[in-house]
Specification:
This protein is an alpha+beta fold and 857 residues long. The protein is built from 24 helices and 31 strands. Strand 4 and strand 5 form a beta hairpin. The longest helix has 38 residues.
Length: 857
């Protein structure tokens, strides 16, 4: 391809290689006026000049090209062979109208090239913008700078440098934006060289550092900022400079030591990858940090409130609440803490309605501390008496119910009374800030919450005071609930204990031991109970029961049920009949008609004269019988379980067991053997395992303790009732019995046998009355019965006489008039005996009476 460009006056053309003038270009190239080949493979981007792409052109004073640089070739597309030796005017772009006018003129007018050369020759330099024609035909706008120079031989030449205006404008815009950002940005900006010296600093950073910008240049960070800050900055700078990994938004103390700054570092590299230094941007984040710190403090306060609430929620012991409250505040909120309460609060007493006085001995029931030592022991101690005065801060808070903040030693010495050694110990420990808050409930001050801080920790502020008040109010409510719990629990337990046996009888041939353990949870008492009821003839009734539920209602139902059992037991009923009668009472034992009731019960009657025990159950756990021997035989009595009392519609059954001499009967409630997550049989197995270690001479009291110790830790909190009875017989010869035919001679024979027996027993003093009463009862049986008549006598703690016959109907006592010949037999029995009664048996009835033994007997 060939291309010709008119040079506007000379008629010369720019030619391709091989055209006229090409040899001249090759000659100049050989003379060193044109550089060697510089292709794409040789170009290496790196410096700012590479970005600007400044081309160099050398001309003579007539405008002929002497040197055409490779960048000029890249910029305009013309190779040096095409340009060198030719005039540059052919590349200038002019408008078409002017060019046509010059062609029509006989003498061409001077063009732009001529004007530029004239200015160069006159002034020695020229600067301006030119529009040059690219080889492919489009115009390229360049900024040119030309200078008139002289070589070593005195010949003048023109040296020009050209650059595309588009690249210059882009670079100028970038530099302008950089300058604007650097100088007007509210962020602190700095440039460091590879020696970590300041190269450039904007005004914002100079203000942050408190030093003029000029004082920064050439110095390192440790010469400008606070030493502690400079040490950390230097570490960051070296890290970024060595690794090239940037550091973004690193928060640290301000250069002056006050406030906080966010710093970011980047490593600076040129286009060739050479490290030039690092850049730094700094932002003042003091307010952000303060806001963040405020949020964190609020979060910590809420967390503390939540922790205190959760830890106090399940506590119903005043002393434990005081301990937990004081401990949870240290060290999260304070260095020392104390909970001081009115002495009536821990024991469930009345709220302190009267004003506090100097005679009111407040007690410290909870403490928290970060250190130990004699001074701490002098200042804090569980159970310490805290004396207050009305003028002191403690007394003021107790009287007004308003919190107080104490700052400084002078105020600290006025908290209690002058010369208080506890306050002197606090001063010696370095306590400098103290908060005293009232522990209130229903508007009444129960005590004080006192927290303090020592040197090295910020003093309390108003936010801390508000937090302490919130803590004190919540804790005051918890303390009052615990106080009420103590009162309710003590009242319930007092009621329950009053309903349990106050003393135990000592029947002949029977040894007793018992335990009652109230449940460990809740203010409610339970419905467990036990009882031992002496019966006629030296017999004894053993009862253990459990009313379903807890609380005063269960305790009251238990009391009514126990009274009913005792009343019916006095009628000498069989165990199954007694349970049936109790069950028939139904709603009379419930708290109200709308509320049902349910209870389990085991009722056993033991007769030491026959060594037989009759047992009936109403849904209760089976009794356990321990037979004596080298290895104790332990077995559960095979007694029909029945259903709980209060269900109704089911008959109860009794079982009679012959008991070996010295055997131990164990009655208990489910609280002894029940545990969370296991079958009840496993608990009974533990009880049996303990009883297998029993020996005939072992103490029943110790065995009761062993059984209680076998309970599973962490079991469901429930009442425990345990009754153990070692069953023995009456002494040899303590009982006699006879059977007489229903004939008139029976009365005479009965009197004779009774008289002889009393003489053998040495009870002649009871002969007359006993013989009289036996005669009346036997005569009464002869009158109405038609079967054998039995007479039985038992010598125990009293003299028991029983007369039985087949007639099922009990005798009726009636009032005889003066004219009646009979009807006075039962009246004589009732008046002459200590007590008397009747009972039904499988073959008829028995009428019995007891006579007190003489004191010497």
């Amino acid at each position: 391809m060939s291309a010709s460009v008119d040079d506007s006056g000379t008629g010369e053309a720019l030619e391709e290689p091989g055209a006229p003038g090409a040899g001249n270009a090759r000659a100049r190239k050989g003379a060193g006026l044109h550089p060697g080949p510089y292709g794409e493979g040789a170009r290496k981007a790196g410096t700012l000049l590479d970005t600007l792409r400044v081309a160099v052109v050398m001309l003579d004073t007539s405008g002929r090209v002497l040197l055409w640089s490779p960048l000029a070739e890249e910029m305009l597309g013309w190779a040096g062979e095409h340009i060198v030796g030719r005039r540059l005017t052919g590349l200038l772009v002019t408008d078409g109208a002017g060019a046509h006018a010059r062609r029509m003129s006989a003498v061409p007018a001077p063009g732009p090239a001529e004007h530029i050369l004239a200015e160069l020759l006159r002034a020695g330099r020229w600067t301006g913008v030119l529009s040059l024609r690219h080889r492919d035909g489009h115009a390229v706008q360049v900024e040119a700078r030309a200078s008139l120079l002289v070589d070593g031989d005195g010949r003048p030449f023109v040296l020009a440098s050209i650059a595309e205006t588009s690249q210059l404008q882009t670079l100028e815009h970038d530099l302008a934006a950089l300058d604007s950002l650097f100088n007007s940005s509210p962020l602190g900006v700095a440039i460091f060289d590879t020696d970590l010296r300041y190269v450039r600093v904007n005004e914002a950073l100079a203000i942050m550092n408190g030093r003029p910008a000029a004082e920064h240049v050439g110095r390192r960070a440790e010469e400008i900022v606070h030493p502690k800050v400079a040490e950390e900055l230097t570490i960051l700078q070296k890290h970024v400079l060595a690794t090239g990994r940037p550091v973004i938004d690193f928060v640290m103390p301000a250069a002056t030591g006050k406030g906080h700054r966010s710093v970011s570092y980047h490593r600076l590299e040129d286009r060739a990858g050479h490290v030039l230094g690092i850049s730094c941007t700094v932002m003042d984040v003091t307010e952000r940090q303060l806001a963040h710190a405020k949020i964190e403090r609020a979060r910590h306060r809420l967390a503390l409130l939540n922790d205190v609430g959760s830890q106090l929620a399940d506590l119903l012991d005043v002393r434990r609440i005081a301990e937990v409250l004081a401990e949870v505040l240290v060290p999260r909120f304070s260095d020392f803490s104390g909970v001081i309460l009115h002495p009536a609060v821990p024991d469930g007493g009345e709220l302190p309605l009267h004003p506090y006085s100097e005679s009111t001995d407040m007690r410290q029931l909870g403490i928290g501390k970060i250190k130990e030592g004699p001074l701490v022991d002098q200042m804090l101690g569980i159970g310490k008496v805290i004396q207050v005065t009305s003028e002191g801060i403690f007394g003021t808070v107790l009287h007004t119910g308003k919190p107080q903040m104490v700052e400084g030693e002078e105020q600290l010495r006025g908290t209690t009374y002058p010369g208080d050694p506890k306050i002197q110990a606090a001063v010696d420990l370095g306590v400098h800030s103290l908060l005293v808050a009232p522990l209130r409930a229903r508007g009444i001050v129960l005590g004080l919450l006192v927290v303090s801080r020592i040197e090295g920790r910020e003093p309390f502020d108003q936010d801390d005071l508000a937090l302490v008040m919130e803590l004190a109010d919540r804790s005051g409510a918890a303390l009052d609930n615990a106080r009420l719990y103590v009162r309710e629990r003590e009242g319930a337990l007092m009621l329950q204990r009053s309903l349990l046996p106050q003393s135990m009888p000592e029947p002949p041939g029977v040894q007793l031991a018992f335990r009652y353990v109230p449940g460990s949870s809740g203010a409610a008492a339970g419905g467990d109970w036990f009882d031992v009821i002496p019966l006629a003839g030296g017999r004894i009734a053993l009862v253990v029961g459990d009313v379903m539920g807890h609380g005063l209602r269960a305790a009251a139902t238990m009391g009514r049920l126990r009274t009913a059992v005792r009343t019916l037991a006095g009628l000498d009923m069989a165990p199954d009949e007694l349970l049936r009668r109790i069950n028939d009472l139904g709603d009379d034992l419930a708290q109200s008609r709308s509320e049902g009731w349910m209870a389990t019960c085991v009722y056993a009657v033991y007769d030491p004269s026959t060594r037989r025990c009759t047992v009936a159950r109403a849904g209760h756990l089976p009794p356990v019988l321990v037979c004596p021997g080298d290895t104790a035989e332990v077995r559960q009595l095979d007694v029909p379980s029945g259903v709980p009392l209060g269900v109704g519609g089911v008959e109860f059954e009794s079982s009679e067991v012959e008991v070996p001499d010295g055997a131990v009967l164990v009655l208990y409630t489910d609280g002894l053997v029940e545990a969370r997550g296991e079958d009840i049989s496993e608990g009974i197995g533990r009880l049996v395992a303990v009883l297998r270690r029993f020996r005939p001479d072992d103490s029943l009291e110790d065995t009761c303790d062993d059984l209680l110790a076998s309970m599973t830790p962490g079991r469901e909190p429930d009442d425990v009732a345990l009754l153990m009875a070692r069953l023995g017989g009456l002494p040899e010869g303590s009982t006699v019995s006879w059977t007489f035919a229903a004939e008139p001679s029976a009365v005479r024979q009965a009197r004779r046998n009774v008289r002889e027996t009393l003489a053998e027993w040495g009870l002649q003093g009871l002969t007359d009355v006993t013989v009289l009463l036996v005669s009346e009862l036997v005569t009464n049986s002869l009158r109405y019965a038609h079967g054998p008549i039995g007479v039985r006598m038992v010598r125990g703690t009293s003299l028991l006489v029983e007369v039985s016959d087949p007639l099922p109907d009990p005798p009726r006592e009636r009032s005889a008039t003066e004219d009646d010949e009979g009807g006075r037999g039962l009246q004589l029995v009732a008046r002459a005996s200590r007590r008397w009664g009747t009972r039904h048996g499988s073959l008829g009835k028995t009428v019995w009476f007891e006579l007190a033994l003489p004191a010497w007997a």
